[in-house]
Write a structure and sequence with these properties.
This is YgjV family protein. There is one protein chain. The chain starts with a helix and ends in an 8-residue tail after the last helix. With 77 residues, it is mainly alpha-helical. The chain is built from 3 helices and no strands. α1 runs antiparallel to α2 and α2 packs antiparallel against α3. It is 78% helix and 0% strand. The chain has one domain.
Length: 77
């Protein structure tokens, strides 16, 4: 698969994530974009892309778990 294609798809998903109003949905879609960027980073061997997006995906996952367990406020979900 062409790395440039993966990068463009990741960018579109990222932009879509920022149009969402609900925090939970934003974090889910943003995590998908981050994982696509990690794949892109691996394809082009770009460690800054891999590390930063993996970190963001982990942070998103942490907060999604917090929301699911009820630790987050009702406003955030």
């Amino acid at each position: 698969m062409n790395p440039e294609y993966v990068g463009h798809v990741a960018s579109v998903i990222l932009m879509i994530s920022f149009t969402l109003k609900k925090t939970r949905q934003l974090r889910i879609v943003n995590s998908i974009a981050c994982l696509a960027f990690v794949a892109y980073g691996i394809m082009i061997t770009a460690w800054p892309v891999i590390i930063s997006n993996a970190f963001i995906a982990i942070v998103n996952t942490y907060y999604l778990i917090q929301m699911r367990s009820g630790a987050a406020t009702k406003e955030e979900s």
